[in-house]
Amino acid sequence: MGLGKTIQSIAFLQEISNLSIRGPFLVIAPLSTITNWEREFNTWTHMNTIVYHGSLASRQMIQQYEMYCKDLRGRLIPGAYKFDALITTFEMILSDCPELREIEWRCVVIDEAHRLKNRHCKLLDSLKHMDLEHKVLLTGTPLQNSVEELFSLLHFLEPSQFPSEAEFLKDFGDLKTEEQVQKLQALLKPMMLRRLKEDVEKNLAPKQETIIEVELTTIQKKFYRAILEKNFSFLAKGVGHSNMPNLLNTMMELRKCCNHPYLINGAEEKIIAELRDSWPQAVATGELQLQALVRSAGKLVLIDKLLPKLKAGGHKVLIFSQMVRCLDILEDYLIHKRYLYERLDGRVRGNLRQAAIDRFSRSEPDRFVFLLCTRAGGLGINLTAADTCIIFDSDWNPQNDLQAQARCHRIGQSKAVKVYRLITRNSYEREMFDKASLKLGLDKAVLQSM
User: Fold this and answer.
1) Does 119 share its domain with 206?
2) Does residue 27 sit in the same domain as residue 107?
């Protein structure tokens, strides 16, 4: 993560192109990174590269003018293309574009290839219907939850060498002995080029992670207990019938409560009304809303104390959360406090994503905070302008949090990076984090010692 996989892959494609393997080449990457892929192709090679993404009309325009070679009569010349490399997104592959299936691709490079970890996912099924001569998978986290995920990647690369999942799991499913680990490593070595940051950049600034245990506020404790006890009378007090909290997934509701009670349906109106009653003196509406927002959640109380100190120290901050609604709450807080920020989640369109990254990455200190959804903003992008990373809530998969941290702790980072992970003390969130952390042991056993 942050080790130059993009540039190495582009150099590889350029080299085989120099050896008369002219392509066409296909690059499949997350939406957030396709602009950067195009930029790096133009910087490091002379290959004609096109980005294939967007509306049906824009894709038809690309097909008409940028993809196919035509003879003097305007007829398509079979197997002749104007481009050397085509960059597209996972979404385009999933949408089953027949024009991409008809091309004989000499090489495909799949960025963030752990997207293929589920052997029954639709993305893998779509790729199997494409003509791919050579395959290159790029990922910083090939082994996340189980050995089955690793088999999925190996089967896609070499279906003849790894035909049976049952046989593979019979040999390596439990990984209880050192002999099993060594045998698996011997299988992986010819197929895997693995580098660590310390192998590539000896002078990379250090990363320090601090776990900060946050107390539940009084308000949070009331909601937390009500959710655990399924106390509908408390949760429904002052709430309209259509805005009742959903307790079908108790664990998710507890996670929401740990982050901020406003994530629970109907809680915001109830909390603001109670605070207004307790403050008889006239208070401006904006100030009342800010006080309610901050006082309601222990994590936001901490953020409110931490951000002014970070800003005074000239730091730039990334804040990651699993929940888009949680980012909405943080965005409201930043607006109230008049901190300039950028935001990237699944709702932000591709061209606006790179623009937000570029604004934040400029040397001017005006953009102080970048709000990111862990899944959408935690892959493939470079945010070394920041030197502080706040994990507002942890992922069930710890590799996703490592990916998020690697947005700023990567080659090109000149400052020491501090990571603050916020965890609610004595809560379901703490228990979830402890269990998720055990998953890192599999990665350490198989890959770190290779």
Assistant:
1) no
2) yes
Location of structure tokens 């055990």: 438
DSSP-based three-state secondary structure for 391: strand
Please, which residues bridge with residue 207 across strands?
417
Instruction: Tell me the residue range of the domain where 90 lies.
Output: 5-139
Token output for 432:
């979830």
Same-domain status, 61 and 207: no
Q: Which two tokens stand for residue 86?
A: 């085509």
| Other C-beta atoms lying within 10 Å of the C-beta of residue 167 | 11
- Is 130 within a domain? yes
In 3D space, the residue among 338, 332, 252 whose CA is nearest the CA of residue 292 turns out to be: 332
Contact of 35 with 49, CB cutoff 8 Å: no
Residue 185 located in a structural domain: no
18 within some domain: yes
CATH number at residue 314: 3.40.50.300
Q: Which of 90, 124, 139 is the last residue of a domain?
A: 139
Prediction pTM value: 0.72
> Residue-wise pLDDT tens for the chain (450 aa)?
556 788 889 999 999 888 888 879 999 998 888 888 998 999 988 889 999 988 888 888 888 888 888 887 778 788 788 889 999 998 888 887 788 888 899 999 999 888 888 877 888 888 888 889 999 998 877 776 777 888 888 888 888 888 888 888 887 777 777 787 788 888 888 888 877 766 666 677 788 889 999 999 998 888 888 887 776 555 555 555 444 555 557 788 888 888 998 888 888 888 888 877 776 664 566 678 888 888 889 999 999 999 999 988 888 899 999 889 999 999 999 999 888 898 888 787 777 888 888 888 876 667 889 998 887 765 667 788 888 999 998 888 777 788 788 888 777 777 888 999 999 998 888 888 888 777 776 666 666 665
Instruction: Write down which residue in 113, 139, 165 finishes a domain.
Output: 139
Number of domains in the chain: 2
Alpha-carbon torsion (385, 389, 393, 398), positive or negative: positive
SS3 call for 301: helix
- Does residue 363 belong to any structural domain of this protein? yes
Report how far apart the first and last C-alpha atoms of the chain are (Å, whole number).
17
